[in-house]
Amino acid sequence: MGSSGWDLWQRGRAALDAQRFTQARRLLDRAAAAPDADADLQARVAGTLSYVLAQTGDPAGGESLVREALARDGLTPETAAVLAGQLGVICTRAGRLDEAEVMLTRAVDGLTGVALANCLMNRSLVHMQRRDLDACAIDLQRATEIYESAGEASAAAEARHNLGYAALLAGDLVTALDLMARSRPVIAAESDVSAAMSDLDRAEVLRDAGLVEEAERLLESVAVVFGAARMRQARAEAEFHLARSLLQHDPTRAVKVAGAAARRFRALGSESWAARSAAVRLDAKVASGSPPRAEEFIDAAAALTAAGFPTEATAVRLSGAVAAARTGQGQAPLPRLPRQAPTPLKLRAAEARAARSRGTAARRHVAAGLDLLSDWQRSFGALDLQASVAMHGTNLIFHGLRSAAESGDPSILFDWSERARHLSQQVVPVRPPHDPELASDLAELRMLRAELTGSEWTTHPQVRALRDRVRERQWTATGAGDTRRRVGIDEVRAVLEPGTAVLSYVFTGSELLCVVTTTADGRIVRLRWADVERATQGLRADLDVAAAVRSGPMAAVVARALDERMQSLGAALLEPALAVAEGALRLILTVPGALGGIPWGMLPQMAGLPFVLATSVSRWFDDRSGGRRPASAGFAAGPRVPRAEEETRAAASAWQDATVLAESDARVDAVTTLADRVDVLHIAAHGRHTVDNPLFAGFELHDGTLFGYDVDLIPRVPDTVVLSACELGRSSVRWGEEALGMTRVWLHAGTRAVIAAPTVVADDVASELLAAVHTGLSAGEDPAVALAAASSTTGLRTPFQVHGTAL
Prior knowledge:
This protein is an alpha/beta fold.
């Protein structure tokens, strides 16, 4: 006996839910042709088939089917309500939000149970597009309760995921990622396509958090899944989001990807999404230095308004205003922002106002925008999230720096230097409680780190899943406490001791300057950026070669070449500033990302000068007197470093009752326990800097890598940390100004001074120098003073330098 039409329809719906579209269509065709297919069933089949058509590239055909079915006589009220809901979904995708809301409300009023929850979910998307996030959340919470009561775990997870997306639109990145992460396992269990749909939204969270490379890897992978499933609309949506992410750092490629997405949407008849893609393409052209004509912005804004995307239409008008200001095309009135405008849109409005202004007025608009960004950052305390979200202020901060440089006023330029330095450091983190699940994930990552090499570490599925989970746990667990204030140049001058100078380096994107602050005054020194660029080309390679080639016929040649480079670099960077800070005996430096990796201690002009690389002068100001004479020290020697144990024991001899962990005793748990109870921690081990996520940088111990994320599991971090590990003084530059690496991890956790090197240091050199450093530390010397003294007494010139606030 054959299956009934109703049974075939149900099986077709199940195939559709699993994204098996070809199978679904066959079953639905059979259901429509079944002997028992009355008008009601025929209408239900047509409604379901319309969704298949919409997902596989024929939304117009799907809409016609639903409208024809809805116009038939003899439909039950329930079937009519179901069809109204399906038509509402189609109208939503087409951008006809008014009609969509009418149809979906009709469905909500006529349905009960799970069918009602489905329509509430769909109506929430209409509210979401209109940025009516309160109404959106009400519908989603109601749907979640219905699904949970009905035992529909997968649907409930999808509703919670969508609540996460609403949180994303409200700027609450931590809640967004938490809800999506908790929902994903249930959603992903349904099918690869379901997992990809979840990851499509998660990629948006990562992009808005500034983790664009991770977002792009995720988007490229979901596009492959959608392509294999012949889901042309979903694939085009992934390309659209990829273009939005590329816009932040590769606008030339973003132009191409957005254009391809727009063409794909037009071929599908999805004009609303085509308009959104065209808008991204315009932004990418502005960012790449080839602004479109004013008419293109006007047309794009009109298309977005017609498609039901007023917020994005406003963003396009603001982009047009920025482009017009840059090219001198006049000043049309700026659009008014929607009541619930998201923070990135408010930042773009500030950029537009600043672009149309000069001098004090421009800086006032930039400052207002950065204050908005600061308010947003105060909602989370995790280091990588604070640093990465600065992406949204990149254009503003460079605009402010250029304007400040043009002013010629040292106090103004100092203030803007501090704004740039302070942007990701003003929120004091609330240390998270110990999380055994996080510790377990890190332990598993340690094992994988030991087994995998090269690109496997970033591409292996299990590693990626664990890394995602670790990051997400850290985001949600690390709260935000008080905020640090910025200080002005006069406040700094008032507390400086005679002989101490502050060198605040500022890079505007095209010009390098230095504000020199002493007890006497503050002065601006303009430097030759071209000379600095020339001197830094190939710097890292020369430093690595010099550390490796220390004997034999080439040693003298290598040493001489490095000496010449250091002399040129010092002449370009330091001589003009030190000429102004005449007689300086101690230096506090703040440097932009453009100067990351400079081995300041190796510059001949620094010989004998104690100095510290401060994350910001404001933080140095607040923490300058917070140190205490260290009373205890701990040491750990990692495996496969020939002189690590010799180095640690020689350094430990400067202390009474120092603890030295070596061989099998130097395990991650033992080292973190040791860190909790000593004032000075010294680790001699192989180090690895991870460019794509510096918080997965770390050093190798007996049982694996101690990651940056492990540091936040230490209840009380040492006052001073010495990292005798190649590369762990390096940092990755985020968005022009933000530098993030292992040194920043320790400083963020509360350490006052980190002694580390940005490049390779020969083992014997590190051993001799750092043993001498501990002689000074144990005698109560400031870390910067101890390092300078050790360099003088040993005659060793190394890239070791002090980061933090201790001087």
